[in-house]
């Protein structure tokens, strides 16, 4: 503790107080006489009745205006970290939530019927001062604990959902006691939610309470049981074959990771204390408060008298359940003949000429069968026909990808700021969207046509320029296309198209390296030296 000596000790045992030096006792018990009653004190923010070793509640009501701010201030002033009176405060929180639904200001006067409801709750609030909860779960007359069980209840309603945990102790004489450890009551969200989902949220709350108790409770627990009065939730938990929607699936994942299927049991609603947490309670309703603080009566009896286990009687989740994820088989089909035509060709020139022939055939049919006065050309395709075909193809591409932008530009209104082409300052010219950008003073006759990067026609155009320029690199291809087109994410598309070019792959493949012959034996095997000198050689003087 940082080397500090702890002082201001307080205990409910007089023998312990006698053993502590007077200088280290709490001021309230320094001059305590043997016949004096031990005083009340605060322990971690709650009132501790030291003489009876019980936790009590103190209500200090102050005058607050009847506004959202004043009501929230009073509700928040009740400090209840263990949720022992959470069903009481739930109804007050519901009033605050209803005022939020009305979208009232913080200091606006609230409607009269909410004023009456708030005053009734405020009048009954002092009744919680008469409540007391034993600080120690084990009574003084209890002998050695033979069995310790943890029972967690959960429930949900239109008002909210909640959970509570009880510790059931059995001593050597088979005497049983049951105490509330912790409770939690939460309001249902403002957005409408089904009852099964709220009950499932209550079950998740029970699992989270268990995780807290599993870490903090020092008593060794022999058995853990989870109770709920919802057969739908039990059916969801025991389901192993069907897939649920995301909300249900995520909460079932938490439940399955925290508990086992055998730990869940069914309890009827009148015997479920969590029903009190989910619906709220009046502070003066002593009967329900007794059930809330001490648990249902069947926990004080032998396990053979507990509610019947419905494990084998639960019905499986049916296909009509609204929480089931629908399994739909999807088969992609192209119903647009224009898309089929454009995806059929792998060459821009061939697509262009085929479209031009179709347009000429259309004019021929109008002249022949509909008696329209149109000029129908014969012979080879002309340059003007190819240009018309190109415009028809590009208009179709843009109408697919820039539908909203075309509607805006036709009304002479700017495109949305989050549009992909908003930064290009687009303009509409002969039904084609062009990138005006900062080129208004350039000497070009036409602004570049905007094209999406993920369309087959755009890839054909890039491939056409790549091949027409003699299979040049990325920068040259990009510069050539931008003379007429502005492709979104152009560098990435050019890189992708060139990377798929077979002639370029063949031309730029790694050079072949001739395999070298193996080394000679004389190069790798050690041999005797070629010169052998006798004892009498020219080197004798050096020896």
Describe this protein's structure.
The protein is built from 18 helices and 13 strands. It is α/β, with parallel strands linked by helices. The radius of gyration is 42 Å and the shape is elongated. This is Integrase zinc-binding domain-containing protein.
Any descriptors?
543 residues, alpha/beta, five-stranded mixed beta sheet, Integrase_H2C2, Integrase zinc-binding domain-containing protein, Retrotrans_Pao
Blueprint (SSEs and pairs):
Blueprint: H1 14-19, E1 40-43, E2 46-49, E3 54-56, H2 68-76, H3 86-101, H4 112-124, E4 132-134, E5 145-156, E6 160-171, E7 176-187, H5 195-216, E8 223-228, H6 231-238, H7 246-258, E9 264-266, H8 274-279, H9 286-294, H10 337-344, H11 348-369, H12 383-401, H13 403-410, E10 426-429, E11 432-435, E12 449-451, H14 456-468, H15 474-481, E13 485-487, H16 490-499, H17 502-507, H18 521-524
Parallel strand pairs: 5-8, 8-9, 12-13
Antiparallel strand pairs: 1-2, 2-3, 3-4, 5-6, 6-7, 10-11
């Amino acid at each position: 503790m940082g080397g500090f000596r702890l002082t201001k000790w307080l205990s409910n045992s007089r023998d312990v107080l006698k053993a502590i030096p007077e200088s280290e006792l709490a001021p309230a018990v320094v001059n305590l006489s043997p016949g004096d009653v031990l005083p009340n004190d605060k322990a971690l923010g709650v009132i501790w009745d030291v003489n009876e070793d019980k936790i009590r509640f103190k209500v200090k009501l102050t005058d607050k205006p009847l506004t959202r701010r004043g009501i929230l201030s009073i509700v928040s002033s009740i400090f209840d970290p263990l949720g022992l009176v959470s069903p009481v405060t739930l109804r007050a929180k519901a009033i605050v939530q209803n005022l939020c639904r009305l979208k009232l200001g913080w200091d606006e006067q609230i409607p009269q019927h909410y004023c009456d409801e708030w005053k009734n709750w405020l009048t009954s609030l002092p009744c919680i001062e008469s409540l007391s909860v034993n600080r120690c779960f084990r009574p003084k007359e209890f002998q050695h604990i033979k069995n310790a069980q943890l029972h967690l209840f959960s429930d949900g309603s239109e008002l909210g959902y909640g959970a509570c945990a009880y510790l059931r102790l059995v001593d050597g004489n088979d005497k049983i006691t049951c105490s509330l450890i912790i409770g939690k009551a939460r309001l249902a969200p403002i957005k409408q939610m089904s009852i099964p989902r709220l009950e499932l949220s209550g079950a998740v709350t029970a699992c989270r309470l268990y995780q807290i108790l599993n870490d903090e409770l020092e008593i060794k627990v022999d058995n853990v049981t989870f109770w709920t009065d919802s057969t739908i939730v039990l059916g969801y938990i025991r389901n192993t074959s069907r897939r649920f929607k995301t909300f249900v699936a995520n909460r079932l994942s938490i439940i399955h990771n925290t508990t086992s299927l055998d730990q869940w049991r069914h309890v009827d609603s009148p015997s479920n204390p969590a029903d009190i947490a989910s619906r709220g309670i009046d502070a003066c309703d002593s009967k329900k408060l007794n059930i809330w603080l001490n648990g249902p009566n069947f926990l004080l009896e032998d396990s053979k008298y507990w509610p019947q286990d419905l494990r084998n009687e639960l019905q499986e989740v049916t296909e009509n359940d609204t929480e089931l994820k629908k399994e739909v088989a999807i088969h992609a089909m192209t119903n647009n003949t224009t898309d089929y035509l454009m995806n059929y060709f792998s060459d821009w020139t061939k697509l262009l000429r085929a479209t031009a022939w179709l347009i000429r055939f259309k004019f021929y049919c109008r002249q022949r069968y509909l008696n329209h006065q149109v000029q129908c050309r014969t012979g080879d395709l002309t340059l003007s026909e190819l240009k018309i075909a190109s415009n028809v193809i590009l208009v179709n591409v843009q109408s697919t990808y820039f539908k909203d932008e075309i509607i805006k530009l036709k009304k002479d209104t700017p495109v949305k700021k989050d549009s992909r082409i908003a930064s290009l300052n687009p303009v509409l010219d002969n039904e084609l969207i062009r990138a005006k950008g900062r080129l208004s003073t350039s000497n070009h006759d036409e602004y570049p046509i905007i094209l999406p990067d993920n369309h087959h026609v755009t890839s054909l155009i890039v491939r056409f320029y790549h091949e027409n320029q003699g299979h040049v690199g990325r920068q040259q291809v990009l510069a050539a296309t931008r003379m007429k087109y502005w492709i979104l994410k152009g560098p990435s598309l050019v890189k992708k198209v060139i990377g798929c070019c077979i002639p370029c792959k063949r031309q730029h493949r790694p050079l072949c390296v001739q395999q070298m012959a193996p080394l000679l034996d004389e190069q790798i095997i050690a041999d005797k030296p070629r010169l052998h000198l006798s004892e009498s050689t020219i080197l004798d003087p050096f020896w």
